Amino acid sequence: MPLIKIRDLHFNRGDRVIFDGVNIDIQRGKVTAIMGPSGTGKTTLLKLIGGQLRPDKGTIEVDGQDVHKLSHSELYELRKRMGMLFQSGALLTDIDVFDNVAFPLREHTNLPESMIRDLVLMKLQAVGLRNARRLSPNELSGGMARRVALARAVALEPMMIMYDEPFTGQDPISMGTLVNLIHRINDAMKLTSIVVSHDVAETAEIADYIYLMSGGKIIEHGSPVQLKDSGSQWVQQFMQGLPDGPVPFHYAGPDFAEDLLNPEDNA
Amino acid sequence: MINYIRSLGRWGLGSFERLGRAHIFLVAMLAGVPGLFLRFSLVIQQLFSIGVLSVMLILISGLFVGMVLGLQGYNTLVDFGAEESLGVMVSLSLVRELGPVVSALLFAGRAGSALTAEIGLMKSTEQLSGMEMMAVDPIKRIIAPRFLAGIISMPLLAAIFSAVGVLGGFLVGHGLLGVDDGAFWSQMQAKTDLFEDIFNGVIKSVVFGLVVTWIALFEGYDAMPTSEGVGRATTRTVVHSAFAILGLDFVLTALMFGD
Amino acid sequence: MMQSKSTEITVGMFVAAGIAALFVLAMKVSNLGDLTEEKGYQVTAEFGNVGGLKVRSAVTMAGVRVGRVADISLDPKTFDAKVTLNMYPQFNNIPIDTSASIYTAGLLGEQYIGLVAGAEDESLKNGDVITLTQPALVLEQVIGQFLYSKAEGSD
Question: B133–A84: do the CB atoms touch at under 8 Å?
Fold first, then answer.
């Protein structure tokens, strides 16, 4: 029984179709990656799972509950067991690192301050930023902010974590740190992870299973090894990052030679 | 032509949609207010950044407005030999109108725009979204304390404005122009009614505080999550607040002081 | 989140300053001071015309305020205006034959009641009636009388 079951998901934003009948199963205790070119609505998918957006059609079940049939308070109860790591980290900028990690604990538990301190230091130690606890979020680099956000996301010991583009815009060292951390935390806490990304190499390194999305549909899914051996040209282009292929290099329009011969610009 | 009508229609629908969203937002905010009494420290934090940080502006503006009223009022009243009524003129203009209105306009510029920028920035950096995913309702945790703090701050700021303004009028009237101080105060006390004038002024400023804070928070919450969107929302807060204050002032004045 | 002490203190000072400002407005600027002076005694006086006299107008004696108008009503029998004066308690030896007139402060000012002391030893008490009264000067009447007398005088 998968932890998350997405069936026949349809979602439109204005006139644009984002999802057109998507089915995804996310297995417990595994790292599942959802990959695809920019603008395929990967972040939107996470917001749908978290109940921040409502699908036009189809269902999303998390741990047996249909997310979009829950009442406001049931949804908030469910969210306490979900962690999410935003691309920007989404740290609260008016409080320091320590208070950020302590925030969900103080909001949702009545633990004494001494115990909160121990828990926060433990989580910060796990991401290697225990000694940065009195820094303000503005003083952190992008990678450090994501590590703090990770510590905050696991503070309530959730059953799953959703990572939104965790590797984008990172230098190789912090990229390596994050890959390592996600892997370690997933194993140590027996978490279910969903990674949304377009960084092929790093994602393939940690993912147990990959869904490839494009144009609102699942193009291919399988383990990283299966995808590398896929016969589909599109999958090959995406996995290897080839500049031209089924996804053309040139924006659709008239031929170049034709354009040069035509003095009027009517493209 | 068809296109023009179509875009007009779209604009109209869009405006109604925004108006509807603003009122749903207001209801959600009001629903979040009772819970705040259990966690009043959240409100105190906001009283500081909304109220206390506006005090200096209110003090200085109130003093100068009162001083100008003293000068202008004296020049007019002295023609009728009624300069003893200077106190009444200063106190009534301040308590009924200028205190609530000018301090609300200053409040919109100082605290309102800051609120919109803050909330807009929190939205564009995904802090609000992140909070939702941590199962913390941002309307209850972030918006409602600011809303309540705005409603509490505004009448206090308006009262400070009026009090300092009366003092400014007295300094100019008595100190500079030599109006008898006994006459200044006794005439003022004779003609300024506690309920008719002062309480109505307080009611006005509570309404202004509610509306300005509501507009500011909604603009921030509804802003496009880009730096340009936040900038535009901030401008809108100041403009819409000014319209709302002046329009409501007319309505409230007609209700309170019109017979 | 730790609430810093200085934040709490400044917020406290802000709220106190705001309430103090309201208090100053109430006590110093408005007529609240008078609302608490209701403990005095009340006397009534009937006038042929009260002109622009209002409730809360001043009652003075030799220019000093000794009370306020508490109520104005119409006497159903005489069709005169019945004015109830609220006298401050410290002025408790005003002679019983004191007369009351309605004056105007300046040409355009508010109207008030001026008392002129009589000579009796007995003083006014709660519920007494001032019988010697002079009605308000109504400007139109004065001008009318003036023109009439001019017209008569020119014969």
Answer: yes
- Of B187, B206, B195, the residue nearest B256 (C-alpha): B195
Give the tens place of pLDDT for each residue, C34-43.
555 557 888 8
| Rounded Cα gap, residues B201 and B100, in angstroms | 6
Instruction: Report the C-alpha gap between A123 and C98 in whole angstroms.
Output: 90
Q: Which of A91-100, A207-216, B90-99, C46-55 is predicted least confidently?
A: C46-55
- For chain B, residues with pLDDT lower than 70 are 258-259
Query: Touching check for C131 and chain B: CB below 8 Å?
Result: no
- Give me the residues of B, 158-217, that contact C with CB < 8 A: 159-160, 162-164, 166, 185, 188-194, 197-198, 202
CB < 8 Å to B130, chain A: 84, 86, 90-91, 149
Distance from CA of C128 to the nearest CA of B (A): 26
Q: What is the pLDDT of residue C1?
A: 44
Q: How far apart are CA B58 and CA B99, in angstroms?
A: 10
- Residue ranges of alpha helices (H) inside chain B are 2-32, 40-46, 53-77, 86-92, 99-107, 113-124, 127-133, 138, 144-170, 181-191, 200-222, 227-257
Local structure of residue C121 (DSSP, 8 states): S
Residue B140: domain span: 2-254
Q: Read off the tokens for A64.
A: 């047996």
In one-letter notation, the amino acid at residue C128 is: D
Give every CB contact of residue C21 below 8 A, 6+ residues apart in sequence. B156, B159, B160, B162, B163, B164
Is residue B60 a contact partner of residue C22, using CB atoms and an 8 Å limit? no
* Total domains in the fold of chain B: 1
Q: Would B145 be classed as within a structural domain?
A: yes
The amino acid present at A91, given as its one-letter code, is: L
Residue of B55, B175, B143, B53 whose CA lies nearest to B103: B55
User: Does some domain include residue B55?
Assistant: yes
The CATH architecture to which A4-230 belongs is 3-Layer(aba) Sandwich (3.40)
In a domain, B259, yes or no: no
The answer to whether the complex's ipTM is over 0.85 is no
Summarised one tens digit per residue, pLDDT across range A187-198 is: 888 888 999 988
Distance of CA B194 to the CA centre of its chain: 21
Least Cα distance to C55 among C80, C75, C35 occurs for C35
- The strand pair at C99-104 and C132-134 is best described as parallel
Q: Which is nearest to B117 in space by CA: B233, B241, B242, B214?
A: B233
Which chains border A (3 or more CB–CB pairs < 8 Å)? Answer: B, C
Tell me the torsion sign for CA atoms A79, A83, A84, A88.
positive
* Alpha-helix residue ranges (DSSP H) falling in A19-141: 42-49, 72-79, 97-108, 113-126
